[in-house]
Amino acid sequence: MGGLTQVLVFCAVVVAVRAAMIESNIPLPDENAWWGPGAAEAVDTSIRPFKISFEEKMIEDLRYRLKNHRPFTPPLEDAGFNYGFNTAVLNDWVSYWANSYNFTERENYMNLYPQFKTNIQGLDIHFVRVKPEVPAGVEVLPILMLHGWPATVLEFYKVIPLLTEVSEERGYALELIIPSLPGFGFSDATNKQGLGATEMAVIFRNLMHRLGHEKFYIHGGDWGAYICFNLASLFPDEVYGYHTNYGISFSPASWITWFMGSFGEGAQNLVVEKHLAGRLYPTTSILKELMTKSGYLHIQATKPDTIGVGMSDSPSGLLAYVFQFVSMAVRIDNINKTDGGLLDHYTREELLDNLMVYWMQNNFNTACRIYAETLNMRNLNNGWFSLSTPVPVYLIQADNDLLYMSTPMLQHIYTNIVHNKAIDGAGHFLASEKPELFSNSVYEALDMFRKQKDDCKDEL
C-alpha cells in the first residue's frame, strides 16, 4: 500500500472516530423550517397548474448574447476535452443555439406533461405529476423521482411513458411525481443559509404528504440520490423502497472500507467482487480519476456565488461549463475527443433543452449552492453523513458513472440492499441515456420491494 493511501486511511479513520462520537446524538432537521423570504407566514397551500413559457424578451436577449460574445481562446493542439470544453467546436454550438434551436417547438416539448406548483415551507416547489389511466381495481403506486446537477426534470421525460403504461401482467401502475429541486428549474430558491440535501429531503416528504401520499417509493440520481438517502434515513416508515442509479455514500465508514481493500488481494476480495475490482482498484488510479472528474465540485462546494456570476452573464460560458461536465459524466473517454462525444448519446435539442432551463430561470448559481450547503463541516458534525436506513434499496450502477461503490461499502448506510446491479455501456444520466434499461430496473426494483413486503407479512 502506497504512502498516499496510508495517509488517506489514517485521515478516514480519524473522521470515522469523530463521526462515531456524535452518531448517538444526531440532531434531526426541523420539519417545518421556513425557507421563504423574511419570517414565517401563512401561505397558499393549494396545488396550482403551471406551464413553461419562453418570453420573447428572454429569447431576444439570449440570441444577442450568443451572437456578440468575444472571440474564444483557441484550444491547444490535440487537447480534446482535457483542458475543458474545446473551443474549436464551441462556435458551432453557439451558432446552433442562436440560429437553429426552435424555441416554440422546444417549449411545447417541455410542456408535454402536466406540471404544478405548491408552496412548501415558504418555497414554491415545481413538479411534474403524471397519473396513469387504470381500470378499477388496479393498484397505483406513487413514486417520487429526483434529479441532480446539472440536470432538470427533463432528465425523466423519456421514461415517463414507459413508467406510466398499464400492464395487466404487472398488476399495478405508477403515479410519477417529479419535482425541481429547490433553487433548480422552476422551484424557488431560498435566501437563507443552510438548505442542503438533508433539508430538501424534508421538503419533498412534505410535498408528498401535500399530494396525499403518506407512504411512497422513491428514486434518485446524482444529488437526488443523496436527498433520497436522507429521506429514507429520516423517515423510513414512510418509504416503501428506494431505487437509485447512483450508489453514493459520504459515510467515513464506507470510504474506510474501500481503503482497507488496498492492503492486498485478500482484503480487496472482501470489498468487491473480482470481476468488478477494476472499478475500485488500484486505489491511487481511482483517486487520480476522481480528482480529474471533480474539479467542478471543489469550486461549487466552496464558492458557488463566484462561478455563478459568469454563468449568469454568458450563455456561451454556461454551455461550455455544463456540457464539459456532461461529456465527462457520460463517458470518461470523451475527454480525448475534440467534440467531447456530446452527440454520441444525445441530440443537440436534448442537451440545449436542459441548458435552457438554467438560462431562462437564471438559477445556475442557486442550483450550485447545494454543494456548499451539503458538503460542509456542519453536516459532518451533525452526523448526517453517517445516517443509515432499513428501507429496501435497489442499486443499478453504470461502468461510466462518476464513481462505483460496492455492497460492503454501501452496507454502512443501506442495511437492506435487495440488489446491487453493475452494468456496462452506460453513464451518469441513466434515465435519459438508456430509458428502457432504466425503466425495466425500476419495475424490477418495485417487484423486489413488494415481494419482500409480502414475505414479511407471511412471516408474521
UniProtKB/TrEMBL annotation:
Q: What is its EC number?
A: 3.3.2.9
Q: Does the keyword Hydrolase apply?
A: yes
Localization, per the record, is: Endoplasmic reticulum membrane; Microsome membrane
Q: Looking at the UniProt record for this protein, which Gene Ontology cellular component terms does it annotate, in alphabetical order?
A: endoplasmic reticulum membrane
What superkingdom heads the lineage?
Eukaryota
Domain named Epoxide hydrolase N-terminal is located at: 47-156
Chief subcellular location: endoplasmic reticulum
The record's section on InterPro entries has: AB_hydrolase_fold, Epox_hydrolase-like, Epoxide_hydro_N, Epoxide_hydrolase
Q: Which residues does the entry assign to the active site, renumbered to this chain?
A: 222, 371, 428
Recorded catalytic reaction(s): these are: 1-(4-methoxyphenyl)-N-methyl-N-[(3-methyloxetan-3-yl)methyl]methanamine + H2O = 2-{[(4-methoxybenzyl)(methyl)amino]methyl}-2-methylpropane-1,3-diol; cis-stilbene oxide + H2O = (1R,2R)-hydrobenzoin
Q: Which positions, given as ranges, span the membrane?
A: none
A UniProt-annotated Pfam family: EHN
Similarity remark: Belongs to the peptidase S33 family.
Q: Which PANTHER family match?
A: EPOXIDE HYDROLASE, EPOXIDE HYDROLASE 1-RELATED
Sum up the protein's function in the record's words.
Catalyzes juvenile hormone hydrolysis.
Q: What is this protein called?
A: Epoxide hydrolase
Species assigned in the record:
Trichoplusia ni
Q: Which gene encodes it?
A: LOC113501158
